[in-house]
């Protein structure tokens, strides 16, 4: 029982911390004040658009409840790119793309919060969402399935293939390692934290003077 209590307390502490960070950002889809272009009326659980405490269905994220992406993406490619990349994005990018590619409704949740059979979670509102809860193509948050004009993801980071990049240290507390998924891959999560918008654009840290870019790029 003690182990269960500690586990539950840890999960609750994480949820409270995450909600505290999300509540005042555009990822708070329950609030027209925080997310005026994309919100849902009749919904109040801030964390529920990604997470559920029970019966999680999306293994790409902790206690995931949002429908995962199953799209095939056009990946970034360039003759000047020396590092290898995966054929498709890895989980941390797919989590973001499951909303931002505009093919899955933001409120496509399993399980749906509330009573069994309650239907979709909230009614879509705001100019960035269509009537079914999909991000519109005119939204600043819309990425689509063509990633060829975005910062590459799925990159297998190896400065040995390009001396314009910082060498990994082998320590996940140091740069550039701490930005890499599984210490290996450049993904959306390398630069973005969906729970915290302290630095704008949900960046993981300040990019003043291109400081975040320079964690990896050696220019």
Task: Summarize this entry quickly.
With 219 residues, this protein is mainly α. The chain has helices spanning 2-22, 91-100, 188-191, and strands spanning 39-41, 123-125, 155-156, 185-186.
Question: Can you put this structure into words, describing what you see?
Answer:
The chain contains 3 helices and 4 strands. It is mainly alpha-helical. 16% of the residues lie in helices and 5% in strands.
Secondary-structure blueprint of this entry?
Elements: H1 2-22, E1 39-41, H2 91-100, E2 123-125, E3 155-156, E4 185-186, H3 188-191
Antiparallel strand pairs: 1-2, 3-4
Features:
mainly alpha; two-stranded antiparallel ribbon; 3 helices; 4 strands; 16% helix; elongated; disordered N terminus
């Amino acid at each position: 029982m003690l182990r269960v209590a500690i586990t539950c307390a840890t999960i609750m502490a994480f949820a409270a911390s995450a909600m505290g960070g999300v509540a005042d950002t555009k990822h708070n889809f329950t609030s027209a004040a925080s997310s005026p272009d994309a919100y849902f009326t009749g919904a109040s659980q801030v964390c529920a658009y990604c997470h559920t405490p029970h019966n999680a269905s999306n293994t790409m994220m902790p206690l995931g409840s949002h429908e995962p992406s199953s799209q095939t993406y056009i990946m970034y490619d360039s003759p000047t790119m020396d590092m290898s990349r995966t054929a498709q994005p890895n989980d941390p990018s797919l989590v973001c793309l499951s909303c931002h590619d505009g093919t899955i409704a933001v409120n496509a949740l399993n399980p749906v919060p509330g009573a069994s059979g309650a239907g979709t979670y909230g009614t879509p509102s705001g100019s960035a969402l269509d009537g079914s809860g999909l991000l519109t193509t005119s939204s600043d948050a819309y990425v689509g399935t063509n990633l060829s004009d975005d910062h590459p993801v799925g990159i297998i980071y190896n400065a040995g293939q390009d001396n314009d990049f910082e060498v990994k240290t082998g320590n996940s507390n140091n740069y550039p390692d701490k930005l890499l998924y599984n210490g290996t891959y450049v993904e959306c999560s390398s630069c973005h934290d969906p729970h915290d918008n302290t630095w704008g654009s949900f960046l993981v840290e300040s990019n003043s003077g291109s400081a975040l870019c320079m964690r990896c790029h050696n220019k």
